[in-house]
Specification:
Elements: E1 2-3, H1 9-23, E2 30-31, E3 35-36, H2 48-56, H3 71-76, E4 80-82, H4 85-94, E5 103-105, H5 126-153, E6 158-159
Parallel strand pairs: 1-3, 2-6, 4-5
């Protein structure tokens, strides 16, 4: 899961997906992590507002620490999922040609009516943080279907 700062959207997406994987019995089969394309918040916990909104909806993301995307991420993870088109473009520019197919928008996995981008809530208000969680929940349902198929198809670990 990749956003700009790795303190609002992508840690929320990580927390939501981890919870949904647990509920689906897939925790052992899938590795989930998040990162930012930017370096401003490396080592920080998620934004306090993101933590509070996530916790109120059952997702404890307090222990996560921000990090920046690395070249190794394109080798390690089968899915590199951007929160919006801006971060998608940054990832495409960083990724080797052979791994471009791993990069997608998280919202590619949501129903067609959903927005393609998860808007940055950093300068927003409470409703914007709730919207991030709504988006992550909608996309996670579809993503888990895809991951379950990958797990069925390959006995080795699939990584997202
Ligand atoms: P995120 O939100 O990309 O969802 O983690 C942001 C956090 C911090 C900044 C921008 C976006 N910032 O400019 O510091």
């Amino acid at each position: 899961m990749v956003c700009l700062g790795n303190i609002c959207r992508s840690p929320t997406a990580e927390g939501v997906l981890l919870q949904k994987l647990s509920e689906a019995g897939l925790s052992e089969a899938v590795v989930v992590d998040s990162a930012g394309t930017g370096d401003w918040h490396i080592g920080q916990n998620p934004d306090k507002r993101a933590q509070a909104h996530a916790l109120a909806r059952g997702y404890d993301i307090s222990a996560l620490r921000a990090r920046q995307i690395t070249p190794q991420d394109f080798e390690r993870f089968d899915f590199v999922l951007a929160m919006d088109h801006k971060n998608l473009a940054t990832l495409r520019a960083l990724c080797p040609p052979a791994r471009q197919g791993r990069i997608k928008l998280l919202m590619d996995f949501a129903p067609a009516a959903a927005p393609a981008d998860i808007a940055d809530p950093f300068f927003g208000e409470a409703a914007d943080f709730e919207h991030v969680i709504d988006c992550c929940e909608r996309a996670s349902a579809g993503l888990i279907e895809t991951l379950a198929e990958c797990v069925d198809a390959a006995p080795k670990k699939s990584q997202a």
